[in-house]
Amino acid sequence: MRIEQGFQQQPPPVLHPFLDDPVYPTLVKRLFPQSSHATVIQELTRFGDDINGYIRDLGKYVEPPTLIQYDHFGQRVDQLKTSEGWRRLKQVAAQEGMVSIAYDRAAYGPLARVLMFLKTCLWTGDSHMVGCPMAMTDGAARVLELFGTSYMKERLLPRLSSRDPCLAYTAGQWMTERPGGSDVSHTETTARPVYPHREIENGTPFRLEGVKWFSSATDGQLALALAQVPNQGLGLFVVPMPDADPELFSPDARSLPFQPRNGIRIHRLKNKIGTHALPTAELELQDTIGFLLQHGAQLNGVRAIAPVLNITRVHSAATSVGNLAKCLAIARAYTHVRRVTRAQVLLAGVPLHTATLARTEVLRRALTHFLFGVVGLLGLSEAEMATDSERARLRLLTPVLKAFAAERAVGGMEECMAALGGLGYMEETGIGRDSLVEKIWEGMINVLALDMLRAARGGAIKAFCEWSRAVIARNESKSDVAELVKALTLLESLKLADSHARLGLLLVAHVASASYLLEHAQWSRLELDDVIAQRWIEEGGLNEVVKLVSAGPREEWDKMIVHKL
After folding, report:
1. Is residue 273 situated within a structural domain?
2. Which segments in the chain show pLDDT lower than 50?
3. Is position 200 within any domain?
4. Are 396 and 458 in contact (CB under 8 A)?
5. H or E segment at 237?
6. pTM for this structure?
7. How many folded domains does the chain comprise?
8. 499-534 pLDDT, tens per residue?
9. Which residues are registered as beta bridge partners of 233?
10. How far is it, in rounded angstroms, from Cα 321 to Cα 315?
11. What positions does the domain Acyl-CoA oxidase/dehydrogenase middle occupy (predicted)?
């Protein structure tokens, strides 16, 4: 029999990423003023059309990058080649304002972030990880906005937030090194002033020497790098990449002793499980010129780079949520064309299959409303409209959101993959492996749990619990919130410690996501949203977390189980 003969499976319909989504249109109506609804819906509808059209077609031309370290004369050239599809998708990101929207506060105010992250969620499943350099560019733009020199703000910052692909710069961040991983206190890279006898101030040029173990935007035009300044501590530097114009960084750039390629050597490209299109590299820095970014008299590189971490963590969560939404859309569409059993029943009519997808959809909605709750706080903070309580909640929930979304979305995507059977495991289907990286990128869950503990100091837990109780107090729906109240009471009395930081993070995540679901249900007044909130509270894993937290530490048994001690 020829392959053209016999049964031919009908492809599932292509759903619109915005109009056919059960969540995103309601977010627009809830979060934006009514006067903006038509404009925002029109923009997201147009963008969804483009995603289903030429943007998805560009994916056919995305290939892994290649590195040519030496030319045919034996000269070191370190030429990084990316594919046409990758370069075109980066141009699309600039044109669509995937960074610039966030900084157009004159037009959107605190809702600039909401619109930007809605667009991020819509396109992430077709972006082939272009969202990674966009996230770091976004973070770098915020750092320059806060700590850059007036010259950088005038010349360099507009490049990071430009919609013109011919002008737009992308940025990377160089934090990870071999000794410490996520612990930057062990940074080996050193920085020495180019002019040792001059006073050190913001924008002072330094020479950087070291090795950066993960550079995930190696084709960018600048990077933010941490380096140890002898006898002074950890500093943050903005480094021109070989393709950049150094005169955008400093008025004195022409007089500086720049090495060829600014002393940056690409040791090798990483051979990763996924994110194959993304040029991730190991870099050697030798006499690399970087410009100090300093706020105040004392060096504090960790504080200076914190905005990058916070913004990229929200981007990571949005990538997890957006990819899960796309996977669910594919699985949902497939139920309307795939027939099973002797009776040839559509999968949409099989209760067991529908129940599986319903559980995943409840998870997706919990993560989505959690995401946009934090995005709303970020927008208020950047627009300088946030209260002290809102700023405390933002600091607390940012690492929690990133960790929880990455941890739970992967399981949801696996369910969607299985819902298509063997087709789900095919690359062409679009349920890919790339989102696995979100569990590691910008911090694993245990690292983020410890960061949450630091954020919990100074009344952040109290502010969060007060907000959650206020949401619960407004609950007039049929949702039974007894289990949520029990969890909230436990959180209020819990003394968070390193030994159970992960469970503490999961407890905060469940309380937050349930509270945001309730908040949405209170707005919509739809029974369906009440049911979704109820199911998440009772079946989403909250009870198991409460049980484990209440059981107390288990360190000694853990050691015996793992190490046979």
Report:
1. yes
2. none
3. yes
4. no
5. strand 233-240
6. 0.96
7. 2
8. 789 999 999 999 999 999 999 999 999 999 999 999
9. 229
10. 10
11. 173-287
